[in-house]
Amino acid sequence: MKRQFLGLLARVYVMQFAMEVPATVAMLAEMLMEYGFQVDIGTVRPLLRALQMEGYLESVLRDGIGRVYQLTEQGREELASSRVRIDELYRRLHNPLLDDDSAAAPARLAKVAATANS
């Protein structure tokens, strides 16, 4: 489970990095390592290939640099959607009793309290 979650998180990071600047495999691997991922070029390539096949990244050859990866329009849409889901998860983790229906929060709080007391 942890490995799957980290894989999904790495996808989001790669898409974010590729949106900020067209990057080589080595640059993307280095950026992931800076955020604590234990990766190397060999583990990043399959991720990039998968993101390309899904239409989220494209690669182009740049003189003097080599192949760089950049986010496509479809990738921008997926990144935006991922950000919304991550924000929702973050909000729920930090305010588990609150959601969009704040009127229901007191009832949930009472239910949690009743469960804790039983």
Automatic annotation (TrEMBL):
> What highest taxon heads this organism's lineage?
Bacteria
Ranges where the Transcription regulator PadR N-terminal domain occurs: 22-80
| Signal sequence annotation | none
Q: Tell me where the transmembrane regions lie.
A: none
Pfam families, A to Z:
PadR (PF03551)
Q: What is this protein called?
A: PadR family transcriptional regulator
Q: Specify the species.
A: Cupriavidus agavae
